[in-house]
Fold this protein.
Amino acid sequence: MRRVATLYRSTVGKKILMALSGLLLFLFIIGHMLGNLKVFEGPDAFNAYAEGIRTFGYPFLPEYGFLWLARLVLLGAVGLHILAAVQLWQRSRGARARKYRKETNLSFSYASRTMRWGGVLIFLFVVYHILHMTTGQAHPDFVYGDVYANFIIGFQSPLVVGFYLVAQVALCLHLYHGIWSMTQSVGATHPKYDRMRRPVAGVFATGIFIGFIIPPMAVLLGLLS
Amino acid sequence: MRLTLHVWRQSDARDPGRFETYEANDISESMSFLDMLDLVNERLTEDGKEPIAFDHDCREGICGSCGMMINGVPHGPKTMTTACQLHMRSFSDGDEIWIEPWRAQAFPVIRDLVVSRDPFDRIIESGGYVSVRTGSAPDAHTIPVEKQAADEAMDAAVCIGCGACVAACPNASAMLFTAAKVAHLALMPQGAPERYDRVLSMVETHDEEGFGNCTNHGACEVACPKGISVDYIAQLNRDLFRATLSSRPANEAKE
């Protein structure tokens, strides 16, 4: 019992929880990004893809069954990720009540120091993004089911695309530190590959950034309509 | 050379403390940082003032006693160097130097630049040992140890317990210290049987002492005067994860 309790209570255990929930969200993000690129195949293919998610596994699963299962799992992962982050942040804040008069930043990267505020920004973005593209309250002309049209109209405004861009920069930095950090937190390291971990994190973070900004930019530049 | 020092002065744990400014004249670049403080202290004593208290012992970079924040960097600007081995040639004439004690709730200030590092001792007491008597140093190769394991254990065992990792960490975490102490025993055949109990106990004590958690900034590795790698923290995390899943009997005596 002591062992399981230690895993839950200890800072290391919370980091492992953070890493595993982060891994799940990271995999979702890869899928989401690849799905978005389907917009270049035209309205029918894109709408069929969205419809495909809704009816995935039918008739073995009820319609929307897979979709809601995925949503619940993701919501759980987001919840655990934030819970662990808040608990760890509170602990660390208490661990150094008095700050240094003179501080010099010795961290490996800028990304590591922006994880907390970057995470808050990403969370706010996700809330807006759901209101924008899923439920439609933040969308000027939302038509349920016509995903392609919603997509095109949604990204007509440079202001909206600008906000998406800022959020993607935050996500890119978050992933750059997060992917490396994840391998560190679960101890998935090996002397032979350790030097590859940072470059690989950089490649994934940049790849996801580019993959996510291409479709909105294409709409804004008039390449998609 | 001539320097301006801003030094943290605090007479005891209850004193709120403050910075005091001293002009340090005629400083030779061949002096070590601690020699320079000795000279400043001599002059303070001559003026009838309290000298600046700081920890020191061997002055050759192996005991782990000395350590202070010098312009926001543990042990000062030179990497892989303790404060006693830092020389004044690393500074130039007219420099302003801010000198502060390690800042962490777990390391209360005893006086001026001296902090209590007792929590480190308690982390060691909770598991940083081998329970059975292993005798005196064995003859070479009587117990086979892989070359790589021996090298890695030595690289972890160079930790002098100075506390620079805690001081540098934005979260005031002692994970690098704990990880180095866990690793250098875990990698050796003598330490292997208690590997999982050790990591559980030492991490538990680390957390109880009020250190923060590791967020993988890597500042500890940069600050460490012995260059201990954060890879050992990954190893500690992996060991803890395995220990919680392992079915090997845990040492319940502690509870």
